Structure formats: structure tokens, C-alpha cells
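hi! just following up on the protien thing from before. the input was this:
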Amino acid sequence: MLKKQIINFILVGIINTIFGYSIYALFIFFGFSYIVAVLFATILGILFNFKTISRYVFKSNAKNLIFKFIVVYFVLFITNILLIKFFKLFNIDEYFAGFLAIIPVAILSFLLNKFFVYKK
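and the predicted 3d structure came back as:
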């Protein structure tokens, strides 16, 4: 069961990541700060990601979990900002810093969703 969840999370995560990173990169391209870019990518991604992760990874239709999901995304938002800020200390540009943050944030996302939101 865990192996299948991880595989489904990776597959769904690829789509969610393309969606979120595209929004992030678009905001950076138009001159917004990385904080604003991450904020909008997070806000726009919450409902899309909630639907895909609920349905395809954790096989849940419970709408009441959205509040816990939002809490998780707040934690992911802060983590993402801190990681990008850390990478920028090494003169890594905002595009690549955002890209580097994807894997650790994705791992944290899976763990928080599995054990806090869906508890499966």
C-alpha cells in the first residue's frame, strides 16, 4: 500500500509540480519577488492539489480535510521560502533556487499529508 501511494504521489506530484513551478516562474518573469511568486503558486495550487492528491493518492472524498490540507500548505509555503532564501545566500538565482526546493518540499508534503491530513 505504501509503495503504491508513493508511486501515485510521484505521478500526481509531477503534474502538480509543473503547475506550481510554472506559476512561480511566471511571477518571477514578470518581476515579482520570490515570496510573492511562491505565495501565488501556493494559493492557486491548493485546490488543484487537494483534489488530485485526495483522489489519486489517498483515495479520499472527504471535503472536510481541506482545512488540514491548507495548514500543510502553509508549512510547505514557509519551508519553500526558507529554502529559496537559503539557496540565494549562495548566489543561486530565483529560478534555480525554486527548482532546488522542489524535492525536499515534495518529501515533506508526502509525509505531512500521509500522517497529518489523511492519516493513512
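The chain has a mean pLDDT of 93.
DSSP finds five helices and no strands in the chain.
cheers
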